[in-house]
Design a protein that fits this description.
Blueprint: H1 26-41, E1 46-48, E2 58-61, E3 71-72, E4 75-76, E5 88-98, E6 102-109, E7 112-122, E8 124-130, E9 136-142, H2 143-156, H3 167-186
Antiparallel strand pairs: 1-2, 2-5, 3-4, 5-8, 6-7, 8-9
The structure holds nickel (II) ion.
Nickel (II) ion binds at residues 109-111, 151, 155.
Length: 187
């Protein structure tokens, strides 16, 4: 598995609309493996293929919930909470239903480092997609998983989380990104 470089805004490639995947084959699975390794390394909870420069409708998500500490003979084992890894792969995802109720989550993005904003999105969605083995899946998702899938699906349309913010907040983020970019080139 290879850790791939993550493209950062305002790189114009992040504005590209990704193409549907024709077949879930070994080459695509290798890409998904690399994407997952890249996401864990960053670290992040979701990554779209376009963030590593591949304009295909592919996402990986792992919320990496912190599990409960392990009970051992009545005492809690030290070492703190255990990380639970549950990687999920979404090929050609589509939202088929969304709830009327919205939820707000303070979102960040691996392509927009260190900047965050409160984004309002439907709280629950029903989505369908192909999994790692090309199997058709359909599921109702809520909470952080619903938010994360919608955020990653935006990437497939060339949309970034700050596009959902007020003009004032959006301008502030774009200004910071442009400055950071200039800084990098100068350094
Ligand atoms: Ni993102």
């Amino acid at each position: 598995m290879t850790i791939l470089p993550i493209i950062e805004a305002p790189d114009p490639r992040l504005r590209v609309v990704s193409e549907p995947v024709a077949a879930v084959d070994d080459a695509l699975r290798a890409l998904m493996d690399d994407m997952l390794a890249t996401m864990y390394d960053a670290p992040g909870i979701g990554l779209a293929a376009i963030q590593v420069g591949v304009a295909k409708r592919v996402l990986v998500i792992d919320l990496q919930r912190r599990g409960e500490p392990v009970e051992d003979g009545g005492s809690v084992e030290d070492g703190g909470p255990v990380e639970v890894r549950e990687p999920r792969y979404f090929v050609n995802p589509e939202i088929v239903w969304e709830s009327d109720e919205d939820g707000v989550y303070n979102e960040g993005c691996l392509s927009v480092p260190e900047l965050y904003g409160d984004v309002m999105r439907p709280q629950r969605i029903r989505a369908k997609w192909l999994d790692y083995n090309g199997k058709a899946c359909e599921e109702e998702l809520d909470g952080l998983m619903a938010t994360c899938l919608q955020h990653e699906m935006d990437h497939l349309e060339g949309i970034l989380f700050f596009d959902h913010l007020s003009k004032l907040k959006r301008d502030m983020i774009v200004k910071k990104l442009t400055k950071a970019k200039r800084g990098k080139i100068a350094a």
